[in-house]
């Protein structure tokens, strides 16, 4: 009796394996179709693959069209407006002029680059690890591809995200001309935190710090003036507008 049961179980296992193998072969040989119904209305702006085996490239949205869509959004306009007000305040300090050459480090999508152009600065360069043409080019903030003293003013709002803050700031200082300006914006902080950031600037003197509102956030603006011969740490004097 046990022998008959064993024979039956062996035959059942063999049949199950055979059925599973045939099923896998059928699935492998069959060309799957997309779930787009054949009678769906034509959409010339979309190009669906005919099957999962279709390797033809899909239609891409042109860069200029993508940028127009992004730049016309309410969020983009709001941030550019905020940056415009911010850089206008820098202009009122006498640190920014229409003829100034400005570098924005870690510029992201380029809000600050566009804002500088809108306030009348014609020579603006934006860089980040990931490019965002035409506003931002690809470059490592820790190894900027510019000659020494190439800019009048260098701005960044992302020092806190730098892997090596001292190297990041060193490249900012190197890229600014003698008596040029470095502007750093960080999350709102106190006097001691400002001193720690200012101490990272080995070839600059402290101009001032102030609490500001930028893109809806409370931030602290730190301004440093580069001095090539200045090898000691910057002297700290409290800006009257800094609370």
TrEMBL record:
The keyword Nucleotidyltransferase belongs to this UniProt entry's keyword annotation: no
GO molecular function, one term: S-adenosylmethionine-dependent methyltransferase activity
InterPro entries, per database record: Methyltransf_11
Residue ranges crossing the lipid bilayer per the database entry: 12-29
Keywords from the named record: Membrane, Transmembrane, Transmembrane helix
Methyltransferase type domain segment(s): 103-184
Protein name: Methyltransferase type 11 domain-containing protein
């Amino acid at each position: 009796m046990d022998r008959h049961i064993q024979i039956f179980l062996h035959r059942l296992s063999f049949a199950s394996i055979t059925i599973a193998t045939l099923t896998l072969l059928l699935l492998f040989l069959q060309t799957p179709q997309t779930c787009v119904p054949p009678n769906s209305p034509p959409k010339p702006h979309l190009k669906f693959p005919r099957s999962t085996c279709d390797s033809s490239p899909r239609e891409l949205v042109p860069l200029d069209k993508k940028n127009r869509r992004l730049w016309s959004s309410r969020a983009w306009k709001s941030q550019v407006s905020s940056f415009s007000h911010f850089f206008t305040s820098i202009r009122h300090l006498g640190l920014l002029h229409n003829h100034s050459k400005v570098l924005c480090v870690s510029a992201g999508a380029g809000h600050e680059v566009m804002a500088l152009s809108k306030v009348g600065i014609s020579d603006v360069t934006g860089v980040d690890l990931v490019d965002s043409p035409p506003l931002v080019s690809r470059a490592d903030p820790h190894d900027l591809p510019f000659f020494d003293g190439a800019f009048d003013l260098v701005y960044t709002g992302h020092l806190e995200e730098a892997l090596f803050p001292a190297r990041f700031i060193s490249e900012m200082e190197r890229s600014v001309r003698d008596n040029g300006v470095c502007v750093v914006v960080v999350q709102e902080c106190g006097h001691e935190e400002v001193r720690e950031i200012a101490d990272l600037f080995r070839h600059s003197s402290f101009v001032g710090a102030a609490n500001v509102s930028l893109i809806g956030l409370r931030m602290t603006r730190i301004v440093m003036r580069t001095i090539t011969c200045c090898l000691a740490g910057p002297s700290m004097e409290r800006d009257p507008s800094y609370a």
